Amino acid sequence: MTVKVGVIGTGMIGQDHIRRLTQVLTGNQVVAVSDINKEQAEKVAGAIGAKAYTDGVALINDSDVDAVVVTSWGPTHEEYVLAAIAAGKPVFCEKPLATTQEACFRIIDAEVKRGKRLVQVGFMRRFDTAYRQMKAVVESGKIGAPLIFKSVHRNPSVPQSYTSDMAIVDTAVHDIDTARWLLGEEVKAVSVIAARRNSRGGELRDPIIVLMEMESGAVVDIEVSVNIDYAYDIGGEISGETGVVTLSERNGITVKSAGAFHGKVTADWKERFIEAFDIEFKEWLAAAGKGTAIGPSAWDGYAAAVATDAGVEAARTGTRVKVEMTDKPALYA
Ligand code: NAP
Fold this sequence. Notes:
6-stranded parallel sheet
């Protein structure tokens, strides 16, 4: 079956997902795109023979659209995800699911009332082969009960507009979701410590350590460095009661010369997670073709928002902030 997709938001990641859908994956057709910028919508739509909209809700309600991808600016996500649920259409929403935990909960409420999963949130690390292998090791019991997850998130540089809150809400959010998914449990409390300021970062708190206490007592230690210059470098290691599992370097080859050896580190998140994004969309299309969703759910979007809110408060106040969540609806069991 061909899933007819509508994409809302044709910025950087929207265009990358359109490339993925039209040039990499099969079983779908991008039939409509929308952007608040009319010229941009028409340009992107024209290149792939799709309809152009400026109104995302009109795209969702187009009877030609079977499933929706939301890649517009974060504050618009709630409206579009709720409209897709109301239309009964599967919706892939880039993170954040919504910009407040209350908005995330409104989405959960709408989806629960609809009675089936329609929402998938864009936490692409869950589709990365190495992270999946790591999770399989944890679940096999080979390293015993997990005690500490160390996550490293290093980004070469950020624009001047990037704020300290964004280090938690936009960057650490991926590590927070990965921690919840790998360890299979919720966050209980968050503390944030900033290291000596990176001289390239100005007033930005960079790097920071986000420390999370999990329900079981396991500890998660996230390093977020956003101006580290050398590359985009992702690391992860779980220490358990009887062993350790570590993400390996992703070198196709290692070169030895002049008394040294060299490998490659990825330049940016697009390169590091290119295969994960492809798998994420392949699995989303398979579920959307059956009228439903899999993978990171609206609950996961909500849980990430609650934890990032706690992280922002912890960073601002220098205190340990407890994470309070509502009961998990049975739909997400
Ligand atoms: P971007 O380049 O600024 O693109 C956002 C696009 O949405 C822009 O074209 C913007 O138009 C458009 N837009 C704004 N309001 C809209 C509306 N009401 N209806 C339709 N289009 C609208 O941003 P981006 O980097 O692609 O990020 C988009 C989303 O993806 C964000 O939520 C971001 O957090 C997420 N993201 C996720 C990852 C990941 O690792 N999974 C990576 C990057 C981004 P204007 O430019 O005219 O405002």
